[in-house]
Design goal:
Layout lengths: L2 H15 L14 E5 L2 H11 L3 E5 L14 H8 L7 E4 L6 H9 L8 E3 L27 H18 L4 H27 L7 E4 L5 H6 L3 E5 L10 H13 L4 E3 L6 H8 L1
Parallel strand pairs: 1-2, 1-3, 3-4, 5-6, 5-7
Helix pairs in contact: 1-6, 2-5, 5-6
Amino acid sequence: MNFFKFMFWAMILWCTSVSGTYAHSEVEFSKICVGVTLHPYYSFVKNIVQDRAEVVSLIGSRFNPHNYQPQPEDIKRLVDEETRPQVIVVNGIGHDEFVFRIIAAARLNEKIPLIYANEGVSLVPVCGTSSNEKIVNSHTFIGINSASQQIYNIARRLGEVDPQNAAFYRKNARNYVRRLRKLKAKYMQRLSGLSGIDFRCATFHGGYDYLLQEFGLQVVAVIEPKHGVKPSAVELADTIQKIKQSEVSVLFSEMDFPDNVVETIKT
């Protein structure tokens, strides 16, 4: 298997692994409702709570959290005690700012518990940006080590909110992290068998740093100055120059990125 095919399947398996599997419990418990702001956190929380809590996403699957604008029904959900989650899991480092606007609009500041998944997680700046501005990379869920820390954080804090299931949550978190680490070890072993790797890549979106760094792979340039912001002509020219000087091997594109930008970089 060549290196690029390896990286493709490694990323596919990582993304699918976060959904995981969980067994059905024969014991009935009173269930809390856990809200999540990001789709990866739905998978994290569901693997932790299994069937002993309800997990609800605060935005629909078709929405991008980066540019999500709160809707009236979002506020209504939190105002209504029957549909309001007892606790909300948040990224809290720039990826889900919309949730704080929803909470403020519902007048629930400091009245609804928040679990900050990234508490204590080592953060890195977005690599390869065209400006000198240090932008914290909020994509901590795209990485085995950082995701594992978040899973433990979430399980611990959920145990505080729901003490009767605390031991159950801790056990599931350990099992879930074990599966993720086995997946990483499998691909680290396969990567170690590849010789002559000189891998440098550019990405359209600065979301892959945590995962690639774990495999010792370098992101040289990021096309977007910030997520959802199209680069100016000057920024794009600077990035293309950086790509050429660094002899970038691969460019990770995204389906919804403007084709004219892709073609400009390719030429």
